[in-house]
């Protein structure tokens, strides 16, 4: 049906679709966070009036009722970091929503080996059993299109759109081979990112095992520092003392601890371990730092990080401090001088 009334009817209810998109975007973020999946971005959109009208005309005769038959009036795009995250997200969404299989696809699977393109997973869903809840009931029959893609897939799609070619047949033959090679590079980049992530995870696990067994003869890098901070009894003891003093030891930026190690000449985790103050010294450092720390707004605890504790304990100079932090010397120096005055 191509009745001109459809555009007017959509205009009357579009605000409901806008509210649905916002509510759904927040829900998806909560679902991903609860599953421990960190993504680059979750973005959404609601089809404009003109786009709605244009699609009805272009698909003349396809829709008996475009408001219920059109599957992409509301769309959410989830941009993941890694290919394996895409698979996890698709599986997760499939369990949370009612998937309309006949409208859902992995567009990459549709490409022949000699076709260029690097596309994403498309899921068309309804909210399913959530429609039984009062706050979701009015959205029961509305289909939503999820696009789940990696950052590389998103970059490819954005550039492909910018070039203006919607179909392979639209591309001049001399350019098709170049685009094929380019899309292969994007795909290879995703595969390599996943491989590197897997190697980092294995290395982090190896470092964690070493720290747990007291083997601290590890070169200083982001992974070894992270493993040390997460598994060191000494760090846990400092965190406990901070908590007892009304403070919260922040995970902080690991770069700050790496830079602190470099400033103080530590090249192994064992040497960093030796830089940390013992129990009595930690209490004196925390006491000296207390008056210049900031309150964490969520729990009214003073925020302190491991790098600043180490620098305060060793009486770092301004030059050393500035190699670790940008700004904050005046406050740090107050704590430093308070500690030095204690002898």
TrEMBL record:
Protein name: RelA/SpoT domain-containing protein
InterPro entries given in the database record: NT_sf (IPR043519), RelA_SpoT (IPR007685)
Domain RelA/SpoT: 44-171
GO biological process annotation, one example: guanosine tetraphosphate metabolic process
Organism: Lentzea guizhouensis
One Pfam family from the record: RelA_SpoT
């Amino acid at each position: 049906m191509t009745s001109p009334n459809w555009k007017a009817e959509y205009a009357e209810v579009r605000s409901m679709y806008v509210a649905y998109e916002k509510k759904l975007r927040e829900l998806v973020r909560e679902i991903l966070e609860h599953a421990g999946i960190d993504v680059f971005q979750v973005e959404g959109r609601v089809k404009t009036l003109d786009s709605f009208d244009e699609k009805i005309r272009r698909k003349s005769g396809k829709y008996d009722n475009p408001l219920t038959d059109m599957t992409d009036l509301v769309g959410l795009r989830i941009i993941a970091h890694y290919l394996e995250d895409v698979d996890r997200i698709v599986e997760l969404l499939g369990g949370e929503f009612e998937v309309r299989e006949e409208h859902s696809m992995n567009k990459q699977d549709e490409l022949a080996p000699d076709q260029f393109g690097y596309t994403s997973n498309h899921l068309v869903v309804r909210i399913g059993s959530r429609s039984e809840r009062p706050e979701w009931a009015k959205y029961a029959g509305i289909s939503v299109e999820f696009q789940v893609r990696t950052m590389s897939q998103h970059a490819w799609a954005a550039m492909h759109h910018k070039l203006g070619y919607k179909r392979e047949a639209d591309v001049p033959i001399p350019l098709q081979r170049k685009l094929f090679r380019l899309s292969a590079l994007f795909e290879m980049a995703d595969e390599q990112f996943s491989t590197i992530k897997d190697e980092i995870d294995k290395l982090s696990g190896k470092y964690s095992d070493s720290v747990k067994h007291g083997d601290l003869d590890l070169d200083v890098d982001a992974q070894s520092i992270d493993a040390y901070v997460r598994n060191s009894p000494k760090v846990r003891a400092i965190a406990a003392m901070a908590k007892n003093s009304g403070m919260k030891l922040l995970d902080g930026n690991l770069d700050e601890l790496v830079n602190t190690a470099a400033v103080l000449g530590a090249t192994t985790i064992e040497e960093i371990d030796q830089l940390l103050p013992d129990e009595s010294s930690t209490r004196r450092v925390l006491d000296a730092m207390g008056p210049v720390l900031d309150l964490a707004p969520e729990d009214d605890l003073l925020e302190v990080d491991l790098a600043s504790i180490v620098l305060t304990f060793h009486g770092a100079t301004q030059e050393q401090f500035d190699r670790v932090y940008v700004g904050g010397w005046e406050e740090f120096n107050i704590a430093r001088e308070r500690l030095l005055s204690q002898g």
